[in-house]
C-alpha cells in the first residue's frame, strides 16, 4: 500500500470525507423522521379531543396552555417543515452517494491499473 500514488491517496481522503458527510446526513435525516413520527402521533392523539379542549404545548423549556386548533396547526407546520428538511437531506444524500460511487470507481481502476502489471 506504500506504492499508492499521491493522487490516489488524496482521492482516498476525499472518499473518507464524503463517507463522513453521508453519515452525518443520514443521522440528521433519521432524527427528522423520528420527529415527524412523534408529531403525527401527537396529531392522532388530539384528533378525538373536543374542539374547545385546552392542551399543553412545549415552548422551549416551558409548557403553555393552548386550544386544540392552535396545537394542531403548530403540529402541521412542524411536520411540513421537517418533511422539507428531509427532502433536502435526501437530495444531498443522493448527490454525495453519486460522488462517492464515482470516486470509488476511480480509485478502484487506479489501484487495479497499478496492480495489474505487478501480477504479471
Give a structural overview:
It is a single chain. By secondary structure, this protein is mostly helical. It has one domain (7-119): Helix Hairpins, CATH 1.10.287. Helix content is 78%, strand content 10%. The protein has two helices and two strands. The protein has a two-stranded antiparallel sheet.
Rg over CA atoms, rounded to whole Å, is 24 Å
What string, H for helix and E for strand, traces the elements in order? HEEH
Uncertain runs are none
- Spatial order of the strands in the main sheet? 1-2
Name the beta content range. 5-15%
Structural class: mainly alpha
- Note the quaternary state here: single chain
Number of helices: 2
Count of strand segments? 2
How are the SSEs ordered, and which strands pair?
Layout: H1 6-47, E1 54-59, E2 62-67, H2 68-119
Antiparallel strand pairs: 1-2
